[in-house]
Write a structure and sequence with these properties.
Strand content: 25-35%
Number of strands: 19
Largest sheet: 7 strands, mixed
Distance between the termini: 32 Å
CATH class of the largest domain: Alpha Beta
Number of domains: 2
Helix content: 10-25%
Number of helices: 6
CATH architecture of the largest domain: 3-Layer(bba) Sandwich
CATH topology of the largest domain: FAD/NAD(P)-binding domain
């Protein structure tokens, strides 16, 4: 693992904050343009949400599918092949409004750059119920591919109604005795193919118009209290695993005070470009996209940000 240049005198042409399809694609394009990009990939989030995904069936070029972590590893290797420098650290603060941007990493390094591409992605959303954080890792998880193996022959609940929830539930049937999908509405938000896949699985059952209101168990999950949002009735169900798949929020905290954030919480860019309101600062991927949120659109967005940064550097 390499370290960022420690000298404050070094000014990079491009620094990319975050990885995943957007960050790594921006790394590929800026590296091929001989801009010697530095990718600050994150200490635990490198690769983004695809690191927590099983088989990806809709990424072009893989007719038989590809595992999410394998796809991210190939993207990382491709960026490095063309000269991108990748470090596994976090940015703790950034000053973006000057002509030369300054970023501080978790290990205390100062990194200066003429352009910054923000590909910080999004973070898993929580339910906001008591003891959710305390029992994280003790029966509560946001990652089926990470933790599903530990729930062999157990009864599991998945909360959510979108594609991610259907994918999590279907994957968990490889290990669990039963999987119950709890969704607060009366119909799923998932695409038809994902919904049909879940419905056709004998191990999966559904609780609609429902939400988890209480987690039972002292030191680990031993059961759940489910509230019917339509009737107000409560029921207790046996479960030793709770997997939460209710979406995610864009990671904008580091720069929300310097850049324009849209009312929906996403970072604002100009039209179809990747340009933020600050010259030399560009953005790509899920941090600017509340609509599509696909690996392929994130990769395309990373390409756009790289080209915009290249054009900006040429203009100065």
């Amino acid at each position: 693992m390499s370290e960022p240049a420690s000298s404050a005198e070094v000014i990079r042409d491009v620094v990319i904050v975050g990885s995943g399809p957007a960050g790594y694609t921006a790394g590929v394009y800026t590296a091929r343009a001989n801009l010697n990009p530095l990718v600050i990939a994150g200490s635990v989030t490198a690769g983004g949400e695809l690191m927590n995904t099983t088989e990806v069936e809709n990424y072009p070029g893989f007719p038989t599918g590809v595992m999410g972590p394998d796809l991210m590893e190939d993207m990382r290797a491709q960026a490095e092949k063309f000269g991108a420098e990748i470090v596994y650290d976090d940015v703790t603060s950034m000053e973006l409004t000057d002509d030369v941007k300054t970023l501080t990493t978790g290990n205390g390094q100062l990194v200066r750059a003429r352009t910054v591409i923000l590909a910080t992605g999004s973070a898993y959303r929580k339910l906001g119920i008591p003891r959710e954080d305390a029992l994280s890792g003790f029966g509560i998880s946001w990652c089926a591919t990470c933790d599903g193996f530990f729930f062999k022959d157990q009864d599991i609940v998945v909360v959510g109604g979108g594609d991610s929830a259907m994918e999590e539930a279907t994957f968990l049937t490889k290990f669990a005795a039963t999987v119950t999908i709890v969704h607060r509405r009366d119909e799923l938000r998932a695409s038809q193919i994902m919904a049909d896949r879940a419905r056709s699985n004998d191990k999966i059952k559904f609780l609609f118009d429902s939400e988890v209101s209480e987690i039972l168990g002292e030191n680990k999950v031993e059961g759940l209290v489910i509230n019917n949002t339509r009737t107000g009735e409560h029921q207790q169900i046996d479960a030793t695993g709770l997997f939460i798949a209710v979406g995610s929020d864009p990671r904008v905290d580091l720069f929300a005070d310097q850049l324009t954030i849209r009312p929906d919480g996403y970072l604002a860019v100009e039209g179809r470009s990747s340009r933020t309101g600050v010259p030399g600062v560009f953005a790509a991927g899920d941090v600017i996209d509340p609509v599509y949120r696909q690996a392929v659109t994130a990769a395309g967005s990373g390409c756009s940000a790289a080209l915009d940064a290249e054009h900006y550097l040429a203009s100065i």
